[in-house]
Amino acid sequence: MSEHDWVRGFPAAVMVCDEAATIIAMNDMAAATYEADGGYALIGSNLLACHPEPARTKLAGLMAWNRTNAYTIEKKGRKKFIYQAPWFRDGRYAGFVEISMEIPFDIPHFVRT
């Protein structure tokens, strides 16, 4: 077992692309989420092609400027938190990660000091 095997069964969809937006990794939840689009067969394809406009243009901009994006969506009666962020190797931009996780509709929020 490698030190990163935990992500395979992590209960959120995790998809990773390189600096050219080529999908280089995904976990089981991402493969199941995108099963109708090919699941694991999406590895090697372009992440931007998986997004309709205007999301595609927004994601391309986030990737170009190495910016993070976070938001919630509701789809098929489920609420999800989407987190998109750049990842780095040796301090240099190496690509982008998208994490999508189901969350409760009424989720507690705490302010801690």
Kindly describe this structure:
With 113 residues, this protein is of the alpha+beta class. The protein has a single domain, classed as Beta-Lactamase (2-Layer Sandwich). The chain contains 2 helices and 5 strands; from the N terminus they run ββααβββ. It has helices spanning 28-33, 55-65; strands at residues 13-18, 23-26, 69-75, 78-89, 92-103. A 5-stranded antiparallel beta sheet has the order 2-1-5-4-3. A hairpin with a 2-residue loop joins strand 4 (78-89) and strand 5 (92-103). The chain is globular, with a radius of gyration of 15 Å.
Look at the structure and give the mean pLDDT.
93
Placed side by side, the strands forming the largest sheet appear as 2-1-5-4-3
**Name of the CATH class:** Alpha Beta
| Fraction of residues in H or I helices | 10-25%
Order of helices and strands: EEHHEEE
Question: Which structural class fits the helix and strand makeup?
Answer: alpha+beta
> What is the fourth-level CATH superfamily?
PAS domain
Terminal Cα separation, in Å? Answer: 39 Å
Please compute the radius of gyration using only Cα atoms: 15 Å
Descriptive key words:
Beta-Lactamase; 113 residues; five-stranded antiparallel beta sheet; alpha+beta; globular; 36% strand
Q: Which helices and strands occur, and which strands form pairs?
A:
Elements lengths: L12 E6 L4 E4 L1 H6 L21 H11 L3 E7 L2 E12 L2 E12 L10
Antiparallel strand pairs: 1-2, 1-5, 3-4, 4-5
